[in-house]
Amino acid sequence: MTLRLLQIDETNVGAHWHLGPQDRCFYIWEYTSGRDYSFSQTNNLINNLKKKPTASQAQLNYKAGAITRCGLALRQTLNVEWLRTATLVPVPPSKSPDHPDYDDRMLRVAQAMPHHDIRNLVRQVGDFVPSHERAGQGLNRISLEELLEAYSIDESLAAPPPVRIAILDDVLTNGTHYLAMKMKLAERFPQAEIIGLFIARRVFPTPEAVEFPPL
Q1: Which of 2, 27, 67, 203 is the most exposed place for a label (fewest CB within 10 A)?
Q2: CB distance 49 to 42 below 8 Å
Q3: Strand 86-90 versus strand 6-7 pairing type
C-alpha cells in the first residue's frame, strides 16, 4: 500500500488535547499506547526508534534501521513542492549533548530524508526524563510551562528566516512539545507557516484494534 500523510482533524484532535483547530499536524502511522513492540509493526518501529544510545550494538542497529525507515517514509509522503521551501526543525532531545543518553534521533530522521534545510532552531536547557518513561517512574508528563522555560531560539541558526517550518517529532501524544516549539518559533518568526510532522500519533487500544495503515 502506498503511504499517505494523514492530517489531524475534528474526528481525532480531541485525543491530543494541546491541539486546536488552528493547528496543522500530520502523521503517517498510529502507535498503540500500553502495548509492547510485538503488538504491531508501528509499535515495533517506534520501540526501535527510541532505543537509548547506551544500548548494545545489536539494538543500535535496529535503531539505525528505524531512523532510515522513518526518514524515507516522510520523504515519500511529503509534497515535493512544499518541501522545497521548508525548514525541518527537530524537537530537541530530552537530554543535553554531554549526557550519555543524549538521543538526536529526530535530527537523524531528518537527515535520512534527506533534506537541504534542517536546523536545530530550538535548543533546550537542562535534562528531562523522556515522556515515554515518565509514567513508569511515577512522574507526571512534562508540562507546557516547563518546556517553555527550557526552550529558546538558537539565534546562530536563525538566518535566513524560514518561511515554512515543519516541527519534527516521533509520536504525537498530547501535543505538549509541539505546542511549546510552535509558540517559541511563532514568536521569533511570526510570518512563517508552521506545521507539526510526526511519524505516528498515539491511540489507545480497543478490543478490535488493528494497525492503520500498514508499514
Answers
A1: 2
A2: no
A3: unpaired
Beta-carbon contacts of residue 167 (< 8 Å; ≥ 6 apart): 89, 91, 178, 181, 182, 185, 194, 195, 196, 197
Query: Is 43 within 8 Å of 200 (Cβ atoms)?
Result: no
For residue 36, how many other CB atoms are within 10 A of its CB? Answer: 10
Total residues found in the chain within this entry: 215
Query: Who's near 188: CB < 8 A, 6+ residues apart?
Result: 153, 158
Phi and psi angles of residue 134, each rounded to the nearest 5 degrees, phi first: -70, -40
End-to-end CA distance of the chain: 8
Cβ contact 204:33 at 8 Å: yes
pLDDT per residue as tens digits for the range 111-168: 999 999 999 999 999 888 776 666 555 666 899 999 999 999 999 999 999 999 999 9
Specify whether the CB–CB gap between 161 and 192 falls below 8 A.
Answer: yes
Considering the entire predicted model, what is its pTM? 0.91
Nearest to 48 by CA among 156, 200, 151: 200
- The residues, ordered by sequence, that sit 6+ positions from 182 with a Cβ below 8 Å of its Cβ are 23, 167, 194, 196
